[in-house]
Amino acid sequence: MFDSCWESYEWVSSDIYNAIGGNQCVGYRTADQKMAAALVYELLNTRGNPTFQIFARREAEGDRPDCRV
Q1: CA count, 13 A, side-chain hemisphere, 2
Q2: How many distinct structural domains can be found in the chain?
Q3: What share of the chain is helix, strand, coil (3-state, %, to 5)?
Q4: Distance (Å, whole) CA 8 – CA 42
Q5: Sheet with strand 64-68: strands edge to edge
Q6: What pLDDT does 52 receive?
Q7: What domain of life is recorded for the organism (predicted)?
Q8: Is 41 within 8 Å of 9 (Cβ atoms)?
Q9: For residue range 22-47, what is the model confidence (pLDDT) as tens digits?
């Protein structure tokens, strides 16, 4: 987990965002809400395709909450 939103944004924009955009994966699961928020922000603001749909939810499995995008 990252300490700041900026660190989360930098990692997301250089790694998982490219994997989703390159069709290498269809989603991402993390316990860090900052990373999930950064990914949703990137997907909403840089994908010009109007048919691109984004779903995000927070779930609790056991004692650890997870964010899925």
Answers
A1: 16
A2: 1
A3: 45, 15, 40
A4: 11
A5: 29-30, 64-68, 57-61
A6: 57
A7: Bacteria
A8: yes
A9: 777 777 888 888 888 888 888 887 75
> How far is residue 62's CA from residue 27's CA, in Å, rounded to a whole number?
21
- Read off the amino acid at residue 4: S
The structure tokens 């609790």 sit at: 60
Tell which wins on pLDDT, 37 or 67: 37
Distance between CA atoms of residues 64 and 15, nearest Å: 24
Q: Are 28 and 39 within 8 A, CB to CB?
A: yes
The overall pTM is greater than 0.85: no
Q: Over the chain, what is the mean pLDDT?
A: 77
Residue 44 structural domain: 5-68
Calculate Rg over the CA atoms of the chain. Answer: 12
